[in-house]
Amino acid sequence: MFGSLPTRLYINDVVTRDGFQNERSFIPTDEKISLINDLSRSGLAKIEVTSFTSPKAIPALADAETVMKGIDREPGVIYTALVPNIRGAERALSCNIDEINLVMSMSETHNLSNLRMPRENSFAQLAEVIRMADLHHLPVNVSLSTVFGCPMEGQVEPAEVYRWIERFSALPVRGVTLCDTTGMANPAQVFQISETVRRQFPHLEVTLHFHNTRGMALANAIAAVQAGVISFDASLGGLGGCPYAPGATGNVCTEDLVHMFHAIGCETGVDLARLLAATARLPEIVNHDVPSHLLKAGPADRRYAEPTFVAELRARNWDTA
Amino acid sequence: MFGSLPTRLYINDVVTRDGFQNERSFIPTDEKISLINDLSRSGLAKIEVTSFTSPKAIPALADAETVMKGIDREPGVIYTALVPNIRGAERALSCNIDEINLVMSMSETHNLSNLRMPRENSFAQLAEVIRMADLHHLPVNVSLSTVFGCPMEGQVEPAEVYRWIERFSALPVRGVTLCDTTGMANPAQVFQISETVRRQFPHLEVTLHFHNTRGMALANAIAAVQAGVISFDASLGGLGGCPYAPGATGNVCTEDLVHMFHAIGCETGVDLARLLAATARLPEIVNHDVPSHLLKAGPADRRYAEPTFVAELRARNWDTA
User: Fold this and answer.
1) Category of A231 on φ-ψ map: left (φ > 0), alpha (ψ -120 to 50) or beta
2) Of A63, A223, B195, B256, which sits 20 to 30 A from B171 (CA to CA)?
3) Chain B: nearest CA to A249, how far in angstroms?
4) Is B293 an interface residue toward A (CB < 8 Å)?
């Protein structure tokens, strides 16, 4: 069975954080602000604007405060940002942010590689941020990396993922994002894990975050929708590479995802034409091609003129005997 | 529900026909033969070797007989070729082919554009080929173009598709291929149409043929599998462009499709490592990059070494209090 699908899906665009963080050259602050303003007006549910990380660690996003304070806040859009620690949460609060997004990995090796500490220490640090955010009535989402596999350890036990979600769900957390950080997930696995997380943690918002590294991002998204998931991360133009697969495709492309969701009859609130107008500006902003299918091909309802000889063929007196 | 999936799927590689037909420069005959021999040994169920079309119409495949007679025929592999008319069928028969593949379009405008005659005339011509093939006990498959939409007419009525399949099913035909010729299909539509065709024509083999023009090829393949389809066309490296979307991705990539099918627990009989070795030779053969995800990223079970600092971090005496 294809299943009965949710009628309304919610898209969180992460291009100005996850995408720009992976760019070689610094994207000028006014370019970031202008792009976020375009995204705000396209009907997206949420925008991950930036990251309140140390400017030394991620110079690409050293302008976090200027960007957050410079953008036009569209009513109804949730503006969120990545926050690694208490200091980052304070910076985010100073910008009157709507939500913060924390991150830790489900694989010990990936957590050590990426966050340079064991998962247990990450959890302790994030728990502290969550309690501090709660005092300020600031909603928190936790992004869990390598849920569907780790490029160093390989398989990640689903039971291990559920155990960490259990621990976070005991804290004042709004939702969790299940991240396929390096594009290892497959649709059967996505359905199984998404369905279990939704069933076991009905009070948590569950978001899925896919990379198209092995071409399966849209197939995985459909599997998640079939499991009842209604929230998705995506990146305009598909920006945001995977350091473990140089040259490979990055995050699932927002416009490709929105286009597919509309095609299967799910609303997203996004104006695809507006979104594509923003995508069309991307190659100039980042100074390279972007892996967007829609930007090249246009939507499926794009029409082409018939060749001129067809009219003549139609008029001919055909004999089919 | 994700649904219970078939355990065995069958892949028909079309790169040397659909792929090479779309290449600007002529692929030398010995390169074609060598690649087909590699594909034969990779465990594919079927290979669409070439097209017995007029060499004037498709110079890229002018060496059809030489290729068909030059390849090693692996037992168990079905060798097929595209045949437009009686003359083509005679040429195919002279090469002792296992099956022939005929083609017509579900959209009148696309049929006029592509085959330069009305669908009714195409049907009459193909019916003649089918009767001739039957006399020689040669199995016939019919590929139906633009089943999921026409780039000129737009929507194609499913009832119209079923009507043409009904007419073909009254003839001695082994199977039909439902082709998403220009990448307009979406997973909900694919599930619906595949499920109906399988139910209404249980004696026909049903194959699905996807293009990744808008990134949905693998999502569409999963939807078809969920509808019980077990046979798929695919093209090594994803070669085979779409004339209506210049620069866009071509056919669904064989190695990406096989990789996903294995990941969700469906067998294909294909040795992915052997297939990827063949893909790795493609860029040199066609003299340009190919849109294969697997070639860039490797399979999901590819492992990376952890950074050297991780061992030191592990050994540290961490305090989580």
Assistant:
1) beta
2) B195
3) 8
4) yes
Reference A69, options A45, A86, A84, A49; nearest CA is A49
User: How far does the CA of residue B166 sit from the closest CA of chain A (Å)?
Assistant: 19
- Of A95, A150, A179, A242, the catalytic one is A242
CB of A301 less than 8 A from some CB of B: yes
Mean pLDDT of B225-230: 97
- Whether the predicted pLDDT of B321 surpasses 60: no
The CATH number linked to B143 is: 3.20.20.70
One-letter amino acid of A311: A
Contact between B294 and A214 under an 8 Å Cβ cutoff? The reply is yes
Which residues in chain A have their CB less than 8 angstroms from residue B313's CB? 112, 116-118
Number of domains chain A contains: 1
Active site residue B242: yes
* pLDDT band, residue B241 (cuts 50/70/90): confident
Does residue A207 fall inside a structural domain?
yes
Residue B285: inside a domain: yes
Q: In this structure, are residues A81 and A51 in contact, taking their beta carbons and an 8 Å threshold?
A: yes
Is B284 inside a domain boundary?
yes
Determine contact: B267 vs chain A, CB below 8 A.
Answer: no
For CA atoms A63, A67, A68, A69, the dihedral sign is positive
Query: What range does the domain containing B40 cover?
Result: 10-315
Q: With an 8 Å Cβ cutoff, is A256 touching chain B?
A: yes
Q: CB of B262 within 8 A of CB of B272?
A: yes
Higher local confidence (pLDDT), B243 or B15? B15
Tokens 């979406």 belong to which residue? Answer: B186
CA distance B174 to chain A (A): 24
Candidate from B154, B221, B303 with C-beta closest to A154: B303
Active-site annotation holder among B95, B150, B179, B242:
B242
Amino acid at B53: T
Q: Say if residue A321's pLDDT is above 60.
A: no
- Least Cα distance to B179 among B213, B203, B202 occurs for B213
Largest CA distance in chain A: 83
For position A186, what pLDDT does the model report?
98
Q: Tokens standing for A262? A: 């509309």
Q: Note whether B54 and B85 are within 8 A (CB).
A: no
DSSP one-letter string for A202-265:
TTSEEEEE-B-TTS-HHHHHHHHHHTT--EEEEBGGG----TTSTTS--BPBHHHHHHHHHHTT
The complex's ipTM?
0.96
pLDDT tens digits, B294-308:
999 999 999 999 999
Contacts of A256 in chain B (CB under 8 A): 214-216
